Amino acid sequence: MLFRFLKYLQPTHYFQLFTKANTSVFPRVEFLNDDELGLITVDNRYQSKRAKEYDMSWQAVQNGYLGNAKTYQNFEAVSVQDNYHFIRKNFHKSWVFYVLMIRLLSFKNPFVEVKGWYKTKNISRTKVENKAFYNNNFNAYASSLIGKSPKVSVVIPTLNRYEYLKDILKDLELQDYKNFEVIVVDQSDAFDIHFYKDYNLDFNIIHQKEKALWLARNTAVKNAKGELIALSEDDVRINPDWISAHLKCLEFFDAQVSAGVFYPKGKQIPVERSYFSIASQFATGNAMLFKNVFKQVGLFDRQFEKQRMGDGEFGLRVYLEGIKSVSNPLASCVDIKASSGGLREMGSWDAFRPSNFFAPRPIPSVLYFFRRYFGNKASRLSLLRTVPLSIFPYQFKKNKPLLLLGTCITILIFPLVIYQVSKSWHLASKKIKQGSLIEVLD
Q1: Full set of structural domains in the chain with CATH
Q2: Out of 126, 240, 299, 353, which could bridge 218 as a Cys pair, Cβ 3.0 to 4.6 Å?
């Protein structure tokens, strides 16, 4: 990674890894053009020229750079002070202190650490802004791909959510792009084929008796007639231009994946997701990709069945293959977060919050994913960063005082937390030993 301290704060982030072609997402500054350099504020307060260049490269990616400049294929170490400088600019001060504590407890030179931390105390965190770097050109762009009208297969798995499913189906009826089919893989206990007769849609209804999300999505992809796959969910709402916005993004950026943005009902798109950028995550609830991508990287790994992060693991495989994936704010959707049905009925709603005190924390599939791609050391760092914050329920995850209290409670119930994590680690080891369950698409 550009700055070594990111391994403490983003230990299992896609961009920690190089692709199979030994490339990164971070452009070498000397190959950026004037427009791309316009994204960047040069920071001359770094000790070394290399740190300054790395900071510029980081800024470019964070601010929506999507060009084709040569990227870094290795990263040189920079000073401890420059590392503290960087994380102060990009993370809350409490996380900066967190890194200092880890470094000191790891027997790093305390004089060097405290000096680097103290010398950068006047560095303020950079405010996230909507750069909208490509929006004007995108809006004026006439998409020939939409004009060619390729077949799109919209995939929706559903489980006991007819009440919510009706809304997304109504939204699909209103799409301004018309050449699409809707593949619904229905796992509902009281399967009702008559439910679908009231909609003016080209349906392929698949009744799946086994409650298995990744099997459902894999089955839908295998049955898709379209050359493009649009992934959605049964408890979201979309705009009438949802399909066309995804198609236009794919063509405009010469990408193979358009990763749409979620935002909760009653809220707005977060600022950091409100402009086009390289996708740092993949969510199967809102994305479009060419079907050939599945032929290149395989279908979804069924090791994640009834658990979490199967879409994140698929997204990482896409990234490692060097496939271009764009975060697309114009193909957004409202996340309703249905109170019943779906994964809730399978006992796995949140990746880091177990269903009871003696269940594994995190869900074993999370550690299977982390350990398989990032190794045990990075996985332990991820646990250290996430487990204390997971003590309180999901709805309080952005309440900073409660998260701090959760960290303190973790210390009080430390033996229980150790049991939960150890159980998860053990179950993840079984998954790793068994290996992935990824089917290749013919």
Answers
A1: 6-119 (no CATH), 135-343 (3.90.550.10), 350-434 (no CATH)
A2: 299
